[in-house]
C-alpha cells in the first residue's frame, strides 16, 4: 500500500505480531506508518482512531487463525473474530467509512466441496470454529450491504499464505509453537525443533499427504492492491479466491524446502489432525479476470523467501 502511495494507518493489539515489524515495513518502503496499539473488541479504542481522521477504506486482517487453537478455544475465536468485526463495522458505519476488504479464508468451503474451489460454490460447513467465524463475518457483511447498498464489500478467500518479503526483514513470525506447515518446517530447518510431524499419509492423494494451495504472501499482497483499486469506489459485495490454482502435498513442500535450504528436515508421519481436509486448492479464474491478477511465485520461491527470512530472523 505504501509503495502504491496510499497513506497507511495500522491498528494491532500485537497478540501475534510485534511493533518492530511495522518499523521494518517503514524501512523497506521509506514511508511512515501511523500505528495505534489496541484491540478491535474495544469500541472506544476504535472510535478514538476513527474520530482522528477520515479513512477511505479498511483492510481488515485482525483475526485469530490457528485451526487447532480454535477447536480448543471456540469462545476466544468467536469473541475475537466475530465480536471484534462487529465493533469495527459499527464504527465504520458511524464515521461513514463503507469500503472494506475482509481477510476471509478457503476454510469457508468446508469439506463438502471438491477442489478446484470456485466462489459460486455453496459454502460448506467449515470444519472448525476458525473457518466458521470467517463464514459468519462474510454473512454479516453481506447482510450489511442489503441493509445499506452504500457499502462496498470485498471478501478475499485466502488459500495458504506462505513466504516472506524478499528483503528478509519481514515475514511470518508466530508466537509460540507454529500451527502452520511452513513456519514449522523452517524452524525445524534452523534447529529450533528436532523434527516435525506429518499429519497423516492416508489421504486420497498421490503420496497420501494433504494437498494445499500455497500462495506467496507477496502475491497475496498484490491481490489486495488490485482489489482495492478495482472495488474501492464501486458498491456491492465481491467474493474472490486468492490462490494459485496449484496444489502441493506436505511431502512435496518438505522436499522443496530441503532443496532450497540444503538441510534435512526430519519428520515422523502421525495420525491426521482433527478438522483437516485432504485436498484444498483454488480455481483462481475470477481473480485472474476481474482483478487482472495472477499469483506467479512458485513453491521454490516461497521456500527460498521463507528460508532467507528464517535465517536472518535469528539476527534481527
Ligand atoms: C497445511 C497442511 C496439514 C502442520 C490453515 C487455515 C487456513 C489458513 C492457513 C490463515 C495440512 C499439514 C501442518 C504440521 C502437517 N489460515 N501439516 N504438519 O490447515 O491448510 O490452513 O492455515 O490464513 O484458513 O485453516 O494450513 O499449514 O496448518 O496445514 O502435516 O506441523 O500441512 O495437515 O495438510 P491449513 P496448515
Largest sheet: 4 strands, parallel
* Strand fraction: 15-25%
Low-confidence residue ranges: none
Q: Based on helices, strands and strand pairing, what is the structural class?
A: alpha/beta
Average predicted local confidence, pLDDT:
95
Sum up the overall morphology in one term: globular
Q: How many beta strands in the DSSP annotation?
A: 13
Q: If strands are numbered along the chain, what order do they take across the biggest sheet?
A: 3-4-5-10
In oligomeric terms, what are we looking at?
single chain
SSE pattern: EHEHEHHEHEEHEEEHEEHEEHH
Distance between the terminal alpha carbons, to the nearest Å? Answer: 24 Å
Small molecules held by this entry: UDP-4-deoxy-4-formamido-beta-L-arabinopyranose
Count of alpha and pi helical runs? 10
Rg for CA atoms = 19 Å
Helical fraction:
25-40%
Summarize the structure.
The chain has 316 residues and is an alpha/beta fold. It is built from ten helices and 13 strands.
